[in-house]
Design brief:
The protein is of the alpha/beta class and about 150 residues long. It has helices at about 20-25, 30-40, 55-70, 85-90, 130-145; strands at about 5-10, 45-50, 70-75, 95-100, 125. It has one domain (about 5-145): Dehydroquinase, class II (Rossmann fold), CATH 3.40.50.9100. The structure holds ligand CA2.
Length: about 150
């Protein structure tokens, strides 16, 4: 059976749709999951969509992706700006990965302008709301389609 694309979501993203709609949009994380599932299915992939408020759990999922995932999409939430542990896990993970953000982190507070994890991913998509995730799935699917089978 084909491996899924893991879509990993970090802290507080379970609150999507409940506050700050002007920054993060009105859709809930379940709505984002549904978008991802539809987009991936249209491109011939399946999705394993998860959220955690715990850095260690996110690190464990990235480690699991090494054997279990075709690719990885990560919205690390605030850990984006703090987590060397997630950077190290991604550097050790050979599957292609894309960093996503709902908001444009570069138009926000200066502390959001730096991402620790960007160094370890193929690319970064931010600022398109829930559509950022769909764009990431498209980019990953295109890369996986041209990648040599291992
Ligand atoms: O724009 C993004 O996707 C972020 O990764 C979201 C993080 C933020 O810390 C990053 O700088 C950018 C925050 C996620 C929290 O989301 C909430 C949504 C609704 C209400 C409260 C928090």
């Amino acid at each position: 059976m084909a491996k899924p694309i893991y879509v990993l979501n970090g802290p507080n993203l379970n609150l999507l749709g409940s506050r700050e709609p002007e920054v993060y949009g009105k859709e809930t994380l379940d709505d984002v999951r549904a978008r991802c599932e539809r987009r991936a299915a249209a491109l011939g992939f399946s999705i394993d969509f998860r959220q955690s408020n715990h850095e260690g759990e996110l690190v464990a999922w990235i480690q699991e992706a090494r054997g279990g995932a075709a690719g990885l999409i990560v919205n690390a939430g605030a850990f984006t700006h703090t987590s060397i542990a997630m950077l190290d896990a991604l550097l050790a993970c050979s599957v292609p990965s894309v960093e996503v953000h709902l908001s444009n982190i570069f138009t926000r507070e200066p502390f959001r302008h730096h991402s620790y994890i960007s160094k370890a991913v193929k690319g970064v998509i931010c600022g398109f709301g829930a559509q950022s995730y769909e764009l990431a799935i498209e980019a990953l699917a295109a890369r996986l389609a041209t990648a040599k089978p291992s």
